[in-house]
Structure formats: structure tokens, C-alpha cells
Amino acid sequence: MAPIDNLPLVLSGVSYRVGDLTLLDEVSLTIKAGAPTAILGPNGAGKSSLLNIAMGLMQPTSGAISWGGRSDPAPLRRAMVFQSPVMLRRSVRGNILFALEQAGVARAERETRLQGLLARVGLVGLADRPARRLSGGERKRVALARALARDPDLLLLDEPTADLDPAATRALEEIIAGAAASGVKILMVSHDAAQVRRLAGEVHFLVKGRLYESAPTAKFFSDKASPLAQSFLRGDLITET
Amino acid sequence: MAAGTSAWQLIITGDPTLYAIVFLSLKVSLTAVLIAGLFGLPLGALIAFTSFPGRGALVVLINAFMGLPPVVVGLCVYLALSRSGPLGAMGLLFTPTAMIIAQAILITPIIAALARQTIEDLWSEYRNEMLAMGVSRLRCLTALLYDARVSLFTALLAGFGRAAAEVGAVMIVGGNIEGFTRTMTTAIALETSKGDMAMAMGLGLMLIAIVIAINASTWILSSITKSRMG
Amino acid sequence: MMKTLVACALSALMLTTAAAQERFITVASTTSTQDSGLFSHLLPLFKAKTGIEVKVIAQGTGQALDTGRRGDADVLFVHAKPQEEEFVAQGFGIERFDVMYNDFVLIGPASDPAGIKGGKDIAAALTKIQSQGAAFVSRGDKSGTHAAELALWKEAGVDLAAKRGPWYREIGQGMGAALNTAKAMEAYVLADRGTWISFKNKEGLSVAIEGDRRLFNQYGVIMVNPAKHSWVKTEPGKAFMDYLLSAEGQSAIASYKIEGQQLFFPNAKR
Among B126, B135, B230, whose Cβ lies nearest the Cβ of A102? Predict the structure, then answer.
């Protein structure tokens, strides 16, 4: 058992406001170990804010957050893949080695870990390529490898396959599913209901900063979901709640 | 190129006086770049990376000082190093050291301002990723300096270009002493005033050629780095 | 890495300072003595004899005197006798010696717009330039030549303060720059003969007036007073002055010629 445990991740009454604008409104959530959890909702729902707060990168305006009972936001064994991950101006290898160094991996072990990670995300042949010159899907894989280098027990993904073609999406979903199967708790944000259905074990439905529904995936995608969720799933544009 | 004939003869025949002038110019300007880099790069990085009261004013000041008039810098250094000035006892006026000091003062703001802009831009790009990886501030700084090295090198190059092309400050504090403080630019000024336009033009073309050669080699270096690192 | 850089920078500074420790004196002189090439002729001879290196800062006479006042030179070699005597009287210099002379010449464009070419009377020529409004370039830099020019205007009875106009162009630069400017503007200019003979961009310019005794140009040498500035190198400085005033130095000055023309005429009195 690793010494640091981020689970359960507990948000209690978390609000986030910028000026008059309320991005998150009294959100309470408990994320436990298990199958991936998805935050689903239309654009502007506050999903990314929620993820940044869950990572500890932003402080909630009010409410509290804790990771395995700790409230210290230091991102130990916690990792995040941003919607548009920024590549360091280095090779793929350099990017991942930097992440391994920051994760506290001893210098002697880094090369072995690097090879393992490259294999895990399918970048073995691209190790010496400049990371910034890669395609969108490849950059996401580098970001995933950097995240996995931290040996996380909680991995946060912001729209993991936005802007990717179906082949790249499938490849990435396989890596994500593989990570989940190896015991990494995944908390992902998505506006793509089909993807949530493929990957997640439970769904939290967020609209305009408010949590409308939390349910196991099977239930959420059945006729037992709330009318608002059903409306979203039908493809309606949600403007009024 | 008829106008440059006499200068070309000197170049081809390896005239020792000419080569001494070229060597002194390079020594003075490169040493000035080295010193200005030692102050300017950390200063720029520090300003990019920290916030403190008066930071905005400092940024404006350093940006404005990029355009410091060389003669004003020369005059200030002259007054400071003159025997009657505060640092007169060191006896540095009319020496290459005085020229290095003047040029270093002249180009430190250029290097600092360009370094600040470069590092600030890269930091705003890297910020979230670095925070998500829990990178310490010191390690952030070293990573930024390393990843921005091509741009920072270009900043040093900009400083070198200004130093090598500058004539006002070195003329005042160096005195254009033959065989001692005569650089390419002061020699060009002297040959012009002697009415020897051919020699002045020849020296000028040589100075431009040297600056181009240095820029070309660093461009090749940075292209290699970029193709490897992105 | 950083330490190495610092060490490199410091040692580079040390090196340049170490070079300054050799036996040398600093002489503040005029652009005419340097631009004419006299020093390039004279100094190697002096160094071969004494081993003393002379570092020449070429400035206008006014600026050279100022450099001496600040103690930034050991010996002055200039050409504005009244100002030099004032410098000594104020205690900044020990004693002044005549070294050599040449003369000033009035240079003008080949077209000679004021119609003065070939005359002998500098005062009449200047009066005519002013009355015709012909372009005239003035050094305007407090140099010896500038001082001489101002004295000649006075001699000609032209009150510059009143008559000054667009025809009178003060450029604030050295002799060579003034000649280049006069050429470009088709203007008259007062020059010392040494610089004129050695000037290489003469085309379109020629001597308009020469030979007036009022165009006499005396050069003098002064030791900066060590009582004002203790670091003045009196011993090698005196060696340099003695050389200039000696028979050997005087004949070295006389032997400096360009295209067969002698540029400076020795007239030391001892």
C-alpha cells in the first residue's frame, strides 16, 4: 500500500465564483476507488473548474475539499491531463524523464520506467521526436505518460479525446481503460455522452455549476434518469434549468 | 569592389594591425556579452518569475533602457572612471576594461528585457503543467532557463550585435588609442574622418561579415536544437 | 557552469587590466596630429629609443585640455596657445613649450562661389564669404582650429553673433569630419595644412587662401601638473617632452612628409 492515498476524494459544498459569476454552486461529491467516474455536462457547466479544484490547482471560494482525509493540496500521487496539454520544449523522452524526476523516481530507475511508460502509451518509436511537433493524439499520449509517471492513485482527465479523430480516440480510450484496470482511479470530465458510456462506472451530471444527478452509468443512460439528463442525452441544447 | 581594395589587401595579407583591431573588437564585445549575460539573464528570469511592488515600473524601466544612447552610457562611465571621478583610482579610463564596462552596461538591459519576456511567455505556457507536477519554484526556474535556451541565446546575440556595432561609448571611454583601444567601429570612424573612405568601407564590410558569420553559426546551432527539442 | 562563466569574465577583465600595467604614458592630443599620421611616424621612433609606449587620445584642443584638467592624461600636445597658457596659469600644467608649427589653409569648393581663390588676405576672404552668404563649415568643437577660426572672424571684423545665418554651419566635429562635410555641402572650411595634405577625400575641394601670416598655427606641449593629480607619470612624460624638443625629435618631425610635402615645421626654442 502506497503511503499516500488520495481516495476518497471528498468535495463538500464547493462553490467557485469569479466576480458575480458562479461557476460552481454548492457541489458535494465523494469519489471512491473503483471504475472511472465521469463528470458529464454541456459546455460552460463548470466541469473544468471542478477538475482544477479536484487537482488542487484552484481554491474553492467556499466549501471544503479533502484527499484521503488530507486537505493539503500538494499533488502527491495525483496527476492531471489537461484538455490541451502543454509539451515541454524537449523530446518525448525529455518530457517523460522530467515528469519521472518530479515524481521523485531515482535517477537509476528512470530509464526503465521510461521504457515501460513509452510502451504503455504506444510511443516507443517516437521517443526522440520533439514533443511539440507531434499530432494532437500523440501529445495526449505524452501527457498521459507524464501523468502515469507520477504513479497516481487518482488521475484527472479533462476532455481526454476532444478534437481527436475516431482512431486516436479509440487508442486513447484503450490506454485509459488499461490504467483504470490496473487500479488507477480515473475522474474524467467530458461532454461526450457516448464516451462516458463506454468508459465510466458512474456519472455526475453538471449543468451551470450545479450537480443535477449522480448515478451508476447503466442507470444514467436508462429512462430512470432525470428529465434534464434525458433531455441532454437526446441532444437538446440546455439553456434553462 | 574598387572602394575596398586597400582594406581587402590588408585582410588577404594578414596585416597584424588589422587583425589586432578585429581581435580586440571581438574580445571587448564578447566579454561584455558574457558579463551582461551573467547579470541580465538571472535578472530577467527573476523579474519574470516573481512579483513584488514596483515590478511593473522596473519592467518599463528595463525595456526603456534597451534604447540607452551609447554616448550617454559612455559619458557616465567616463565620469565614473576619470581620474577625478569616484572610481578614478583604478586607472581604468582609456583601457579595454573601460570599454567592456561601458558595453556591458549598455547591453545588460537588452538581455534582461528579452530574457524576461521569453521566460514570462514560457512560464505562462508551462504554469499549469508545472503546478500539476508539483515542481518546486527553483526547479521551475532552471527548467524554464533550459527550455528557453535558444531564445535566450538569441537575446545574448542581440546584445552582442549592439555591442559590436556601437561606437559612441567605446570612443569616449576607450579613446581610440592605436594598438590598445582601437576597435573596428572606432577605426571606421577614424578612417572616415581621415577621408579614407575605401579603408573605412573595407573595415565596415569586414565588421558586417563578422556579425553575419556569428549570427549564421548561432542560427545553425539553434536550428539543430529546435529540430531536436521543438 | 555559472562559476566557470564568472571566472572567465573576471579573468578576461584581469587580462585587460594587466596589459595596462606596462610602461606607458597617456597623451591627449588633437585630431590634426593623429589624422595627419604624425604620431604613427613619431611614436615608433620614440618607443624604440626609450621603451615607453605613448597612448594618444585624439580630441579637439578644448577637450584635450579638459582631459588634462581631470587628470586623465599625462602630457598634452595641442595647438591653441592662449588657452594653453591659461591652462598653465591656472596651475593645471607645469610649463608649456613650443614644438612645431604649420599653417592653416582656407579650403573651398572648386566652383569658388565667393570668388576668393588665390588671394593672400584671409580677413578679406572671410568678409567676402559672409557678405556673399557662401556656405562655411565651422568645427564648432572648441578645438584649436575652431579657436583660430573665431579669432580670424574677429580679425576680419565680422561679428558672428550678429551675422550668423544658415550660411554658417557649426558641426561640432573633428577636422576630417569638417572636410567631409564641406565637400558634401560645397562649403568653405578652415583646416590645418597637415590634415589637409593627408586627407584622402579631397576631390572637389582645393586651397582657396594660404600664406597669410595670420594663418600661423603653433603646436605646444604641456606636462599636466602632478601637484594637482599625483598619479601623473612625470618621469616618462618628461622623457617624451624632452624627445620632442631635442634635435633628434625635431628632425623626426621635419622628416615626416606626405607626397613630398612637409606637414609640420619644428620650432622648439631650446
Answer: B135
Q: What is the ipTM of this complex?
A: 0.89
Classify the phi-psi angles of C42: left when phi > 0, otherwise alpha if psi is within -120 to 50, otherwise beta. alpha
Q: Bridge partners of A14?
A: A27
Q: Domain count of chain B?
A: 1
Strands C93-109 vs C168-170: parallel, antiparallel or unpaired: unpaired
Q: What is the DSSP letter of B127?
A: H
A162: number of CA atoms within 13 Å, CB side?
Answer: 13
Residues of A in contact with B230 (CB under 8 A): 87, 89-91, 130-133
Nearest to A102 among B126, B128, B133 (CB): B133
Of how many residues is chain B composed?
Answer: 230
The domain total for chain A is: 1
Interface with A, mutate which of B118, B123, B129, B142 (most A CBs under 10 A): B129
Chain B residues closer than 8 Å to A4 by CB: none
pLDDT at B19: 86
| pLDDT, tens digit, 9 for 90 and up, residues B93-149 | 999 999 999 999 999 999 999 999 999 999 999 999 999 999 999 999 999 999 999
Cα(C3)–Cα(C253) distance, integer angstroms: 52
Decide if A54 touches B, using CB distance below 8 A: no
Q: Are B27 and C175 inside 8 Å of each other by CB?
A: no
* Single pTM value for the model: 0.82
C24-101+217-266 CATH:
3.40.190.10
**Residue A121 structural domain:** 87-151
Helix (H) or strand (E) holding C99: strand C93-109
CB of A88 within 8 Å of a chain B CB? The answer is yes
